[in-house]
Design goal:
By secondary structure, the protein is an alpha/beta fold. It contains ten helices and eight strands. The chain has a single domain, classed as Rossmann fold (3-Layer(aba) Sandwich), CATH 3.40.50.720. About 40% of the residues lie in helices and about 15% in strands. It has an eight-stranded mixed β-sheet, with helices on both faces. A hairpin with a 6-residue loop joins β7 and β8.
């Protein structure tokens, strides 16, 4: 397909965006660069939504391949794609949505050593990884480079959250009361960060998660429990926060830290923006 044909397809594809957004805002999306770290349950649907809104450049960072346990929730996973690299599958599907889309693929894990190289040259970073140490590295690096970043959480049984960090906002580690703020990521500190998720699993029992699952998770005998609608709603919300950061409409503001888009599908108010009563959040309770 030629460049002219691609451009015509782009224009036709996003006709229904108009009336909701302006042609100038669509141009902002078309010129935007978004990096998504993780192409799994949340990252996959985030990438799809960004592509379907007309974002022009996406960088997919994920070193994993699809496995059978991904089929319950990950929108890029199919039986035909088991054992295929997630980032490469993402590129194939995203190009099928928009052939003009520029997709960069990186099959690596974000570390302190490579973070600045991997996360630069972008307008927004979406942290869709499930590794808490990697999250600290991602948001530290984003802050250091002055790039807005988006944090997500999916927590049993039906909970989740989305929060944006900007160069002027509360830092991620402060907003989440991490013990690591301004501290080196020594092996001991990495262990403390990882334990946050164990405590979140235990707390999840009080919210309706099964006690036997939480016990098995803490012992390393069970994976994190995730239901498809929760992961996908969180991903959709993350994509919309990225949308807000890109178009910068004065009356459409993102939830900037410490404000949090809180999700609980078991609640009557399933999605709402909340500010923490004490100025920050206890990450073990989210």
């Amino acid at each position: 397909m030629s460049l002219i044909e691609n451009s015509q397809l782009y224009n036709n594809s996003f006709t229904r965006n108009f009336g909701i957004i302006t042609s100038k805002e669509q141009a902002k999306l078309r010129n935007a660069r978004v990096t998504v770290v993780g192409a799994g349950g949340v990252g996959g649907i985030t990438l799809i939504q960004l592509a379907r809104m007309g974002v022009g450049k996406l960088h997919v960072i994920d070193q994993d391949s699809f496995e059978e346990s991904n089929l319950n929730r990950q929108m890029l996973s199919f039986v035909s794609k088991i054992n295929s690299p997630k980032a490469e599958v993402a590129k194939e599907i995203l190009h099928d949505i928009n052939p003009e889309l520029e997709v960069k693929v990186t099959r690596e894990f974000v570390t302190e050593e490579n973070a600045h190289d991997l996360l630069g040259d972008t307008d927004v970073i979406v942290d869709a990884t499930d590794n808490l140490v990697a999250r600290v590295i991602i948001h530290r690096t984003a802050a250091d480079m002055g790039i807005p970043s988006i944090w997500i959480a999916v927590t049993p049984p039906f909970r989740g959250g989305v929060m944006c960090m900007t160069p002027d906002s509360l830092p991620y580690e402060v907003a989440m009361r991490h013990p690591s703020y301004k501290q080196p990521l020594t092996p001991e500190m990495r262990e403390k960060i990882s334990q946050i998720k164990d405590e979140r699993a235990k707390y999840s029992v009080s919210q309706g998660a099964l006690p036997e699952w939480a016990d098995a998770y803490v012992k390393g005998e069970a994976p994190w429990a995730v239901l498809a609608p929760v992961a996908n709603i969180v991903g959709v919300l993350a994509s919309f926060e990225a949308f807000k950061l890109i178009i910068q409409r004065p009356n459409l503001l993102p939830a900037v830290a410490p404000n949090l888009v809180k999700v609980n599908l078991a609640s009557v108010q399933m999605v709402q923006v909340e500010a923490p009563a004490e100025g920050s959040w206890d990450n073990t309770l989210l």
